[in-house]
Design brief:
The chain contains two helices and five strands, in the order E-H-E-H-E-E-E. With 80 residues, the protein is α+β, with helices and mostly antiparallel strands.
């Protein structure tokens, strides 16, 4: 089954998820859509399914981590 996964900054807020979900519902071609914070994409790129922490800093910043029980937490990431 084909699916679309979007990793985007700010996608932990329901208001942003609603907007992106509505747009993708119109243009996604009926594929299942998953929208996640870009920090999760970076974490998985670095550690796959293992526990770890990613820190992104630039105009804004976020620290995002996941433990062995797959529980995640974040700090920052609330805008520039």
């Amino acid at each position: 089954m084909a699916a679309i996964c979007l990793g985007m900054a700010g996608m932990d807020r329901q208001s942003e998820l609603d907007v992106v979900g509505e747009i993708m519902g119109r243009i996604g071609g009926g594929a299942p859509i998953v929208v996640v914070n870009d920090a999760l994409v970076a974490l998985v790129a670095g550690v796959s399914d293992e526990p770890g922490v990613v820190i992104i800093s630039g105009t804004g910043s976020i620290a995002y981590g996941r433990n062995r029980k797959n529980l995640a937490a974040r700090a920052g990431g609330w805008g520039w």
